[in-house]
Amino acid sequence: MPIRSLLSHKEFSYANKSEHRLVVNYEGVISLLNAAMAQFKKYGCFRMYRKGIIEKAEVYYQSGDLTHALQLWVAVVRDGIPPAIRKDILQKAISAAYCMASMKDYLWCCVQLMPSQPLAEQGFRAVLHSTVPPPPFAASEVTAAQHLRVVE
């Protein structure tokens, strides 16, 4: 074998190994968060328990399970949290509801966000007028593949 093909084979092998190392084990992360949340609940650390719920929702969102993420975010927001955290979570929840086409959750998030964001009010009015609401996220966050998927 020539040296060049050996080097390319080694490079491919290293690239393949590093790619497998960087894959996130979402199920493992969720099980660890569940164990941590059980301990927080057992010892009465309710702020940390709530933080665990938020982190768990983030993991569900990153894994593509928008339904579970949205359920957890809505539960946390209804619990009563500080306004700065609430706005951030509601922004993520409205994006998840929009992507899932969950009208009930989208409208609920719009109503919650109305005092602080005019875009939420525009989305609410669009639904009342039976038109498609504008996306609750910036256009720069939408990839070309996602844009093509919507057009088709």
Order of helices and strands, N to C?
Answer: HHHHHHHH
Mean pLDDT over the residues? 82
- Helix share bin: over 70%
Please give the largest β-sheet: none
How many helices?
8
Identify the CATH architecture.
Alpha Horseshoe
Into which percentage range does the β-strand content fall?
Answer: under 5%
CATH topology term: Serine Threonine Protein Phosphatase 5, Tetratricopeptide repeat
| Unreliable runs | 147-152
C-alpha Rg, in Å?
21 Å
Category from helices, strands and their pairing: mainly alpha
Termini Cα gap: 48 Å
CATH class: Mainly Alpha
Quantity of strands, as a count: 0
Q: Compute the number of structural domains.
A: 1
Task: Tell me, briefly, the overall form.
Answer: flat
Folded structure, characterized:
- Pfam families: Foie-gras_1.
- One of its GO terms (cellular component) is cytoplasm.
- This is Trafficking protein particle complex subunit 11 domain-containing protein.
- The structure is a single chain.
- This protein has 152 residues and is mainly alpha-helical.
- It has one domain (3-151): Serine Threonine Protein Phosphatase 5, Tetratricopeptide repeat.
- Helix content is 76%, strand content 0%.
- It has helices at 3-21, 26-42, 46-63, 66-79, 83-100, 103-113, 118-128, 144-151.
- Helix 4 runs antiparallel to helix 5 (83-100).
- The longest helix has 19 residues, at 3-21.
- It is flat.
- 20% of the residues are buried.
